[in-house]
Fold:
Amino acid sequence: MTVNVTYNAGINPLERFLVANGLALVERIAVIGVDPPNTTTGTVLHNFPAEALPVTPGGGAQNIPRNRSILVTRASLQEDNGLGDEDEIRCRIVIEARNLPATITGFTDQEILLG
Structure:
């Protein structure tokens, strides 16, 4: 069985500038079971291989049409308990920014508040 995901990745001018200067945008797609119905949480059934988005340098926004597929067994999409019942799935798409500076955490000096 083929799971196909088709969408358009909209890249804004700032993201394009950052990509031209070392940022990488990586697409991560997970196939998830939908329980309870109409939710966006659930068990991850499959993960597509991560893939860098082909962002090109330039001004203005960029629209990148995406069409990804993976081949899986029907049995691996069984997310409900009963065999032969209907299973609900959806895909979660995450665009991950890589090569950003590490997060820095700092603290102020402690202050003592008089009671």
Observations:
- The chain has a mean pLDDT of 87.
- Residues 2-98 form one domain.
